[in-house]
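Lab notebook, bench 4. Still working through the backlog of constructs that have no structural model yet. Next entry is a single chain of 155 residues. Request: give me the C-alpha cells for it.
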Amino acid sequence: MHRRLLSVSLFVLISVSLAPARDLALIANKSNSVSAMSLPDLIKICKAQTNRWPDGKPVILVMRLPSSPEMKIVLEKIYAMSNSEVANLIVTANHGRSNHPAIMVVATDEDLVNQVASLPGAVGIVDVYSINSSVAVVKIAGKGPFEPGYLLHGN
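Model written out:
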C-alpha cells in the first residue's frame, strides 16, 4: 500500500513540475531582416548589450515578467540569472530610455505578440501556441521551435 501511494505521489509531483514548462519561440517584427540568430547574439539582445540591428533600427526585446512561470526556461537557458537579477537588469537597461526602452515587459503572450508586431526592430520570446501571422519566427542556433535540440523547448 505504501509503495503504491509513493508511486502515485511521485507521478503527481512529476506531472505538476512539468506542467508549467512550455515550448517557447523567438519572434520578430516582420520588417526585421533577422530570420536566424546565434545563441551568443540572443544573449546579447536579452541583456541589452545590442542596441541596433545592422539596418539601424533600434533593438527592443519584449518579454513577460521575469517572475512569471513562463519565463523559467528563459532565466535558466539564456540569462543564467535569478528573476530578481533579471528585473534589475531590465531597470538598468531602460534607465534614461523612456521613449524607446531596450527591454519591454508585458503581462500576456497576446500583448507580447501585439507589441512585437507593432514595433519595427522588436523581438520577443513567447509560447509557440500564441504565435500568429503578424510576426516572424526566428531560428536560434539554426533550429526552429519544433526541431529536436531547440534551445527553448520546455521539457
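Notes after review: Strands lie at 24-29, 36-37, 60-64, 103-106, 122-127, 135-140. Residues 4-19 have pLDDT under 50 and may be disordered. Flag for follow-up if needed.
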